Amino acid sequence: MGTSAPVLRLDGLGWSVRGVPIVQDVSFEVAEGEFVAFIGPNGAGKTSLFNLVSGIHPASHGTLHLDGADITALPVPARARRGIGRTFQTSSLWPGLTVAEHVRLAAQAAAGPGASYRIWRRADRYRQQVEQTLERTGLADRADDVAASLSHGGKRKLELAVLLVGEPRLILLDEPMAGVSAEEVPALVELIRSVHREQGRTVLMVEHHMDVLLGLADRLAVMHHGTLLALDSPDAVTADATVQGAYLGEAL
Amino acid sequence: MSTVVLLACTGLGLGALYFLVASGLSLVFGLMDVLNFAHGALLSVGAYAAWWAATDGHLGFWLAVAFGTVVGTAASVLLELVLIRPLYARPRDQILATVGVGLALPALLMGIWGSDARPFPQPAALSGTVDLLGATVPVNRFVLVAAALAVLLLLRLFLARTRYGLIVRAGVEDRAMVTALGIDVRRAFTLVFAIGGAAASLGGALAGLYFGSVNPSQGTGLLVFAFVVVVMGGTGSVTGAAVASVGVGLVQQFANYAAVPGLGAAGLGDLSVVVLLAVLLLVKPRGLTGRLA
C-alpha cells in the first residue's frame, strides 16, 4: 500500500452533539483492497465513525475524501452513488419483499438515479445481475422467499447481497455477526472473506468477535472515547500495552 | 332469495365504489404517511368532470368517464406537486392543507353548479336490468364491480411486476432505506398520487352511474367509509382494501334492509359498519393484512 491513492482518507474528522465530542480528530487512510477492522468498548464511537463516513451524521470537524474527491458535504444518497455501501447493526431489510426483489431494487438503484423510473424497460432486465449476486452470496435457493422468513444469518447475507450488487468502492460492515447463531458464523465469515479476497473489495468492519477479526483484517483500529487509539497490524495491536489496558483487558 | 341476491349485488357495487376510493388512499398513506383528506374531493372532481362532459360536452358515456378520470388524475398530481410536496417535513400542516382542499373543492363545485344533485345521463345500454337467480339487478352494479376488479388487477400487476411497483412496495415498508440506496422516492410519491387520483375519479364518474346523479358532497361522504376500509384492510395493502370494501359494502346494504322503520333509513347500515370496524380491530388490531399484497 501507499503507492496508489487511498480509497478513503479522513483528516481530523470529528462529530460533536451539543458541544459533547462523540468522535474526535480521527485521521487515517485506507488503501484499495484493504480490510480494516474497528474494535473498542461500547460507546467508543465506532458506529458514529461509520455514520460520519456514510453520511448519516454531518462532520463537525475535518474532511473526508473518497478516491481523492472531497465528500464531506455530500448527503447519504450521493455518497451511496459514489460507492459507499454499508450495513447496520440491526437488520435493515424490507420484511415483505422477497430475497430476489431486495437485490433487484439495489441493482435498480445502482444503475443510476433515473434508471428506476424508466418505465418502458422491463423490470426483469436485471435478472442476470440478481442471479449472479444471489449465487455469490449463497442465497440462490431462497430467491423467492420473503426476507422475514430468513434466519439471522440469512438476513445478514441478504444485506451483503444488497450491498454487493451495487459494486461499491468501499464497504462498511457494522457488526455483521450480531444476532447470528454460532453455527451460521463460519459461513458468514467465509462470505466476507471472499468479498474481500476474491473480489478485492475494500472493507471496514466493526466487530466484537476478535477470533473472527484476526483471520480477516489487514489492520486493526482501536477506538476509545471517540478517538483512534491505535491502527496497526493485528499482531502489533494485540501486543500493544496501551491497547491491552484500554480495551482488551485480559490476554488474548 | 331474490332480495338477498339484489342486496348482495348492490352491496358489491357499493363495495366496488369504496375500493376505488380506498385503494389510492391506502397506498398514499402507506407510502408517504400522508392522510389525504382531499381524496374524496378528487372523487367529486372526477364525478363533475364526467357529468359536465356527458351533458354540456355531449360526449358519450365512456368518453365522459375517461374525461372525468383524466381531470381527476391531473388534479391529484397538481395537489401533490403544489401543496403536499412542500409540506413533507410538516405532517400537521399537510393534514390541515388536505382538509382545506377537501372543504374548498366541494364548495367550489357548489358555487358553480349549485348544491342540488344533478341527474347523471344514463346510457341506454347500462340503464337496464339483468335477471340473476330470480332477482332483477340493475346493470350499473356490474359495471362498478368490473371497474373495481380491473383496477385491482392493474394495481397488483403494477406493484408486482414493475420497477416503480417495487419501489412503492419497498417504500411502504421502509421509506428511509429506499432513499439510502440512492433512489429518489419522491418521484414514486407523485406517481402514487396520480394512480390514487385516477382510481378515485374513475370511482366518481361511475358513482354518477350508480347513484343516478352527482352532488358536491358525494365524495366527502364516501371518504368516511373509505377511511374505514383503509383501517380494516391495513394501510398500504391493496388486496386488504379490496376485501374490506366488499365486507363494508355488503354489511351496510344488508343492515339497511333490516333497518327498524323508526330508526331512519341509513342509520343502521352506517352503525353496523362502525361495529364491524370495532370488532375487526379487537380481533386483528393491525387490520386484515399486516403487509402489502
What does the model show?
Chain A: Residues 8-250 form the ABC transporter domain. Chain A: This is ABC transporter ATP-binding protein. Chain A: InterPro entries: AAA+_ATPase, ABC_AA/LPS_Transport, ABC_transporter-like_ATP-bd, P-loop_NTPase. The complex is a heterodimer of chains A (252) and B (293). Chain A contains nine helices and ten strands. By secondary structure, chain A is an alpha/beta fold. In chain A, strand 7 (170-174), helix 6 and strand 8 form a beta-alpha-beta unit. The mean pLDDT of chain A is 84. By secondary structure, chain B is mostly helical. In chain B, 73% of the residues lie in helices and 4% in strands. Chain B is built from eleven helices and four strands. Chain B has helices at residues 2-32, 39-55, 61-84, 91-113, 139-161, 163-173, 175-180, 185-211, 218-233, 238-257, 267-283; strands at 118-119, 129-132, 135-138, 213-214. In chain B, the strands form two sheets. A two-stranded antiparallel sheet of chain B has the order 1-4. Chain B has a two-stranded antiparallel ribbon with strand order 2-3. Chain B starts with a helix and ends in a 10-residue tail after the last helix. The chains are: A alpha/beta (252), B mainly alpha (293). The interface between A and B is medium-sized, with 26 and 22 residues.
